Every structure is written in C-alpha cells, then in structure tokens.
Amino acid sequence: MNTIIRRTFSRAVNAQSFSLQSTKYINSSRLLNNRYYSTESNNTETKAEEKKDLTPEQEELAKLKEELEETKKQVLYIAADRENVRRFAKEDADKAKKFGIQSFAKELLEVVDQMEMALGSCTPEMLQSNKQLQDLHEGIKMTENLFLKIMGNNGLTRSNPLGEKFDFNEHHAIYEIQDPSKENGTIGNVVKQGYKLNNRLVRPAMVGVVKNK
Questions:
Q1: Which pLDDT band, with edges at 50, 70 and 90, does 26 fall under?
Q2: 74 has which bridge partners?
Q3: pLDDT for position 204
Q4: What pLDDT digit, counting tens, does each position of 31-90 carry?
Q5: How big is the CA angle at 62 (ends 60 and 68), to the nearest 5 degrees?
Q6: Angstrom distances, CA of residue 48 to CA of 7, 36, 52, 105, 210
Q7: 126-137 pLDDT, tens per residue?
C-alpha cells in the first residue's frame, strides 16, 4: 500500500515539474516572437514614415535624379569607348604607313646585297687596267646609291657595324675571328650589312666576331 502511494506521489510531482517547464518554454517563445515582430514592425513603420515625409513631386524629382545619374554614366562610358576605338584605329593606320613596305623592302635587300658583292669583287688594280670594267663599276655604284636613297626616303636605313661591340639584338654572328690587334667581342668583319625600317630591325647584320684565345 505504501509503495502504491509513493509511486502515485512521484508521478504527480513529475507531471507538475513538466508542466512548469512547458509553461516557461511557451512564455519564453512568446517573448521572443513578440520581440521579433516588434522589430519588424518598427522597421516597416520607419520606412512608411520616410515615404510620408516626401511629397509626390519630391519622389518624382528623386527618381529623375537617379535616371539622370545613370544616363551620365552611360554617356561617359560610350564616349570613352569611342575614344579608344579612334585611338586604336589611328595607331593601326600609323603602323601600316610606317611598316607596310617591310616585307617588300626585306626582299629588295637581296638586290642590294648582289650589287655590293659585284662592287666588292673589283679590285683597284682591275679597275685601273680595264676602262670598260671601271665604267660598269661606276654604273653599279650609282644604281646602288639611287636605290638606297629611294629606300631611305621611305624610312629604310643601312648600318655597317664594323669595329663595334657585338650586340645580339642588332647583329647575327656567323663565325669567329682571331685577331690580336682587335678587342674580344668586337665585330671584325661584316658579311652583310644590317637594315632598319623606321628604327625597327628588318635584318640583322651578318658578322664575324673577334675571339682571341
């Protein structure tokens, strides 16, 4: 009998404790919900008050200002884009004007090389002893000078780097020379001269470089 009483009393106490805990949880949940909805309500009311502060004319003016700022941005973007296109087109036109004959001029250099070889094959003794050869030599020399003058008028220039320091950006070494009278790393012989078109290298000079042991 006493055991049954104890069990009944224990169940009643546990039920009362659970009821109290449930009540606390519900109350705290209601409090949180009230706080959440209270904050949201305050934000909505603030926005509504701000809108009420503006007249229809002011709202329209604010809208027009936003549209004007956006239009300004678009106009500036279009103007900058057009300026870039114009600048790039001008650069391309300038490059075409300066270097449009590069491939053509490079092929003509072979003609100049042949004239140089022909002039170099005639020694002073041969020219003095043969009048016809001397006249031919002078004719080739005049043709070469005229050819180089015309090419120079179009920006093509020739350089003879004999005695200069070897520069791999300007010269192309094809063999080495031993010459104690010259400094190492200098150009001791020029097989073919170099050419530039408006300061752009068209063909490097073919040279022999001094290298003493």
A1: very low
A2: none
A3: 95
A4: 444 444 444 455 555 545 555 567 877 878 888 888 888 898 999 999 999 999 989 888
A5: 100
A6: 61, 19, 6, 78, 90
A7: 989 999 999 999
Structure tokens, 17? 């404790």
Tokens found for residue 145: 């000078």
Cα separation of 3 and 11, whole Å?
Answer: 13
Phi, psi of 199 (to 5 degrees): 65, 10
Residues in the chain, how many?
213
| Both structure tokens of 7 | 């069990």
The HSE-up count of residue 120 (CA atoms within 13 Å, CB side) is 9
Residue pointed to by tokens 């003794």: 125
What span, in angstroms and rounded, lies between the C-alpha atoms of 183 and 110? 31
Q: How many Å apart are CA 119 and CA 136, to the nearest integer? A: 9
- The phi-psi region of residue 183 (left if phi > 0; otherwise alpha if psi is between -120 and 50; otherwise beta) is beta
What is the reported pTM? 0.57
Which strands make up the sheet holding 187-192, listed edge to edge?
Answer: 171-177, 205-210, 187-192
Domain 100-210, classified CATH 3.30.1330.50, yes or no: no
Say what the pLDDT of residue 171 is.
95
- Give domain limits for the chain: 1-42, 55-99, 100-210
pLDDT at 35: 43
Using DSSP, state whether 212 is helix, strand or coil.
Answer: coil
pLDDT value, residue 166: 95
